[in-house]
């Protein structure tokens, strides 16, 4: 016990250094804040559909809602119904079983609607899953896509940038 206390007194409290301020995140957040306010009156509703992802992209979207990136703090929220959504966020390749569901979700959204494909799977030819008897490949092979965000998976900052690009189109 004495040795332990001596060690604590000698070393002190060890903790990680605070992270450096992320200037690019600050800039993207400010632009997103302005764009959401201007285009949507401070409330952008997103419907997310995963028609075949490995879940890596979902984890990054989840991180974008955490305190550091704070997507909800910008007035951007996820909704359960496509009828309430301004934007459709699609992750992963489109499995053939989910192609009809994705098309119906897109059709159910009111105009004007935006579609952002997240990740290499959704933005190009299906990523590591490619096209096959089970996979239609990229999201654009099933519904029109406004913005594709590459990366496997893309970072939360890249996802924020993709949403911003779609809003500013
Ligand atoms: S892009 Fe990568 S992380 Fe995203 S669904 Fe495809 S394999 Fe998974």
Descriptive account of the structure:
By secondary structure, the protein is an alpha/beta fold. It has helices at residues 2-11, 23-40, 56-64, 99-108, 119-123, 156-167, and strands at 44-49, 76-78, 87-91, 114-118, 147-149. Strands 2-1-3-4-5 form a five-stranded parallel sheet, sandwiched between helices. Helix 5 links the parallel strand 4 and strand 5 (147-149). Helix 2 (23-40) packs parallel to helix 6 and helix 3 (56-64) packs across helix 6 (156-167). It binds iron/sulfur cluster.
Number of helices, where a helix is a run of at least 4 consecutive DSSP H or I residues: 6
Bound small molecules, by name, code or SMILES, are: iron/sulfur cluster
Structural class: alpha/beta
Model regions low in confidence, pLDDT < 50 over at least 5 residues: none
Spatial order of the strands forming the largest sheet: 2-1-3-4-5
- Percent helix: 25-40%
* Biggest pleated sheet: 5 strands, parallel
User: How many beta-strand elements?
Assistant: 5
**Order of secondary-structure elements:** HHEHEEHEHEH
Main features:
169 residues; alpha/beta; 5-stranded parallel sheet; 6 helices; globular; binds iron/sulfur cluster
Overview in brief:
By secondary structure, this protein is α/β, with parallel strands linked by helices. The chain contains 6 helices and 5 strands; from the N terminus they run ααβαββαβαβα.
């Amino acid at each position: 016990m004495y040795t332990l206390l001596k060690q604590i007194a000698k070393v002190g409290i060890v903790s990680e250094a605070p992270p450096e301020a992320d200037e690019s995140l600050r800039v993207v957040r400010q632009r997103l804040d302005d764009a959401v306010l201007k285009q949507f009156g401070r409330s952008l509703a997103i419907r997310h559909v995963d028609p075949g992802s490995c879940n890596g992209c979902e984890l990054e979207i989840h991180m974008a809602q955490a305190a550091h990136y704070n997507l909800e703090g910008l007035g951007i929220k996820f909704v359960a119904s496509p009828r309430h959504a301004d934007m459709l966020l699609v992750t992963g390749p489109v499995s053939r079983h989910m192609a009809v569901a994705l098309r119906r979700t897109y059709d159910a959204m009111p105009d004007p609607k935006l579609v952002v494909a997240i990740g290499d799977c959704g933005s190009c030819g299906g990523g590591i899953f490619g096209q096959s008897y089970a996979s239609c490949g990229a999201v654009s092979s099933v519904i029109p896509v406004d913005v594709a965000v590459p990366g496997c998976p893309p970072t939360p900052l890249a996802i924020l940038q993709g949403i911003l690009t779609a809003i500013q189109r």
